[in-house]
Amino acid sequence: MRHYQRMLQQALRVSSRRTSPLLRWVEKWVESAASLKSSETRQVKTLDEMPGPSVCAFAWDLFAKRGLSRLHELQVEGRKRYGPMWKASFGPILTVHVAEPALIEQVLRQEGQYPMRSDLSSWKDYRQLRGHGYGLLTAEGEEWQTVRSLLAKHILPPRAVEAYDTTLNSVVTDLLEKLQLRCRQSPRGVVTDIATELYRFGLEGISSVLFESRIGCLDPQVPPETERFIQSINTMFVMTLLTMAMPGWLHRIFPKPWDTFCQCWDYMFQFAKGHIDQRLQEEAKRLAHGEEVEGRYLTYFLSRQGLPMKTVYSNVTELLLAGVDTISSTLSWSLYQLSRHPEVQASLREEVLGVLGTRRVPGAADVAQMPLMKAVVKEVLRLYPVIPANARVIADRDIHVGGYLIPRNTLITLCHYATSRDEKLFSNPDAFLPHRWLSKEQGHHPYASVPFGVGKRSCIGRRIAELELYLALSRILIQFDVKPDPEGAVVRPMTRTLLVPQTEINLKFIER
Ligand code: HEM
């Protein structure tokens, strides 16, 4: 191995008097592969030898210094202080943090047949307590594989996803009308707290894919049960981290977080069940009248697979949940950054109009031809990865990572926020520079920014999400110039299980 690496390095040096960035990247890769290899052949270290804060220091950071909402920043601080791997006790849970792309790759390449994110999740505890089924986010093993294979056919292949563009475009039309209305209602023409509007858009979008019908989130008067559903998701995310960080005995003294967490989930399950039952009853009536039912929507499809209804309810609940904050947060940050970078906004609009010609509504095939659009969304997700830290538990064997032996069942935290803001991996890492994704000169480690995850357990909604984002951004930019609120301040991200804007994003939408 060493011999080939030396030969490759020599060849690279000879062949490039003016070393190109790609060659520099290959050289770096060879060096890091060599150093990983040599660190592995050195004696394997155990978790006892791994650096990390003491239990008290980490608990102090978490609870006394508002660390739960700063968990993404703690990743960056942890890497600076301890290097690419460190251990910390998150409440009762010991977790190994991994904050270097090559090491994240090592973990993911060893994740096995049925990858598991976490076996200690409060989400699973809730389902067990209430006797609910598991959805794709929480199911494991063969149960997960069965549903994953069924759903993947319908929402992963680009061809299958193209079928949703008309449905999603009708939701975007309502969003544009809502933005117009909000502008007219505001004396300064500023739409305050854009994320709230976009939560409703996210929920309406995913509902249209799941139920092929509209649930009124973007109506002038939003149905109260919709607002309660969105609020339940938000509170549930806050309580997720808190309930996991609290040791069992503390739950008995302060039962409120766990109780609130369960109430939120109760409402989310109830909301999803209400919509599923209503949709399936409508279909049953149509069938009874001899009408043909040709449902493309996912709920209908899932209900026809012979799965227990419990599984249908839990999967639809989890898909609804997965489609709300992810879309709203990414779209909020995209508009925030585009408003602060008018030159990027103008180029993007030019790209959209160039592809559409005289048309005003893009389809899936159009957005596929928009490289800058893809680069903008990639850059937004690099700066603000919705899931700032992912996790894996390898249950069936011990694994080696970065020269350490990680015992089976250890919770491994993958620090995606830290890698995507690492100046060694991305020049000027805190700046919004979408063109970095278009330049062939700049090579990035393939695991440096992986906002949708990688491999068998990666985001199943990725293509739907991308389509929805591209359609919404294209049409917003055709209709409006997006400007920052002159009185607005810089908005930073915060962790609420997911990475979301810490304060309101207010924007001006000026009709073009
Ligand atoms: C910008 C938008 C989105 C981002 C950044 C995102 C990101 C992610 C990430 C990082 C994961 C974990 C992957 C892993 O563990 O390796 C995930 C899982 C998942 N996502 Fe998304 N997601 C987005 C939108 C959506 C949407 C719209 C849906 C629903 C259609 C969805 C459904 C899911 C589901 C069901 C899983 C669990 C997959 C499994 O365990 O097999 N996501 N997502």
Automatic annotation (TrEMBL):
It comes from Megalops atlanticus (Tarpon). GO terms for biological process: C21-steroid hormone biosynthetic process; cellular response to peptide hormone stimulus; cholesterol metabolic process; cortisol metabolic process; glucocorticoid biosynthetic process; vitamin D metabolic process. This is 25-hydroxyvitamin D-1 alpha hydroxylase, mitochondrial. GO terms for molecular function: heme binding; iron ion binding; monooxygenase activity; oxidoreductase activity, acting on paired donors, with incorporation or reduction of molecular oxygen. The keyword tRNA-binding does not apply. Heme binds at residue 459. InterPro entries: CYP11_CYP27_families (IPR050479), Cyt_P450 (IPR001128), Cyt_P450_CS (IPR017972), Cyt_P450_E_grp-I (IPR002401), Cyt_P450_sf (IPR036396). PROSITE patterns: CYTOCHROME_P450. Belongs to the cytochrome P450 family. Keywords: Heme, Iron, Metal-binding, Monooxygenase, Oxidoreductase. GO terms for cellular component: mitochondrial inner membrane. Pfam families: p450 (PF00067). Its cofactor is heme. The keyword Kinase does not apply. Coiled coil: none annotated.
